[in-house]
Automatic annotation (TrEMBL):
Annotated membrane topology: Multi-pass membrane protein
Organism: Colletotrichum abscissum
Record keywords, A-Z: Membrane, Transmembrane, Transmembrane helix
Gene Ontology cellular component terms for the protein in this record: membrane
Record's signal peptide: none
Protein name: PQ loop repeat protein
Length: 247
């Protein structure tokens, strides 16, 4: 579909939703001064994933909103990583700031260099570098999310996943996917990136809801069973007391 206006609207919406998914977490971390349930590796992987995603979106001439979106992801992911190291691992502020600046410089340099390399390759008729960037971006984004599956399957619970967080991410993927579809030229690998991320979040939310229902079902059954057992115990105890009194 060739609708630049719609592509920009959905791209902007996707960028906003991707921002909203992490801002509440950042605020929560700051208010509680702890990140015990968060993985710093998860957020660092998202920051790294922003590089190939940004490179692909720029080199393939996506709309401005989708070009900016990965930068927002990198910034907020590094911010959350900062909090994980500060509150969780008790790193000093100086050490974290130096690390974040170093990581940011490396990521920025890598993106600039790769964008130039991909555009040069395209001018020479090579498309495989763009395809490679799309695949790497999809794998890194998916890898960060798939750890939730492992935790859920291991603990047979929702592993503390916030459905609000997941829904915001899913909504951002939907908006970004629509933005790609409304581009002047349909980019199949762009659909693969956002589509695979969307599919993973749909499955993750479904699994979380399933385990919550199972957990709630067990919880609801628990008091009834306890009441029955307790009632029988009291009856038997009462009977023994009566027998003792008779004797």
């Amino acid at each position: 579909m060739d609708s630049p206006a719609a592509a920009n609207v959905f791209g902007t919406l996707g960028a906003v939703l991707w921002s909203l998914q992490l801002l509440p977490q950042i605020w929560k971390n700051w208010r509680r001064h702890e990140t015990q349930s968060l993985s710093s590796t998860f957020f660092l992987s998202w920051a790294v994933a922003g590089v190939p995603l940004g490179v692909y979106n720029i080199a393939d001439d996506f709309n401005i909103a989708l070009q900016i979106q990965p930068k927002i992801l990198i910034f907020l992911s590094l911010w959350t990583w900062f909090q994980c190291k500060y509150y969780g691992d008790k790193w000093s502020t100086r050490k974290i700031v130096a690390s974040v600046i170093g990581i940011a410089i490396v990521l920025a340099g890598a993106e600039v260099g790769l964008v130039y390399a991909l555009k040069l390759a395209r001018e020479r008729g090579h498309t495989w570098p763009s395809i490679l960037m799309a695949i790497v971006a999809a794998l890194l984004l998916a890898g960060g999310v798939l750890r939730h599956y492992l935790q859920m399957l291991k603990t047979r619970s929702d592993a503390g996943l916030s459905l609000k967080f997941a829904t915001l991410d899913l909504s951002g993927d939907v908006a970004s996917l629509l933005s790609v579809i409304f581009q002047k030229t349909l980019k199949i690998y762009g659909i693969v990136i956002y589509g695979s991320e969307l599919a993973i979040w749909v499955g993750l939310i479904g699994l979380a809801i399933h385990y919550r229902r199972v957990s709630n079902g067990d919880f609801n059954k628990g008091p009834e069973v306890d009441a029955v057992v307790l009632g029988r115990g009291e009856t038997r105890a009462g009977g023994r007391n009566e027998e003792n009194q008779i004797v």
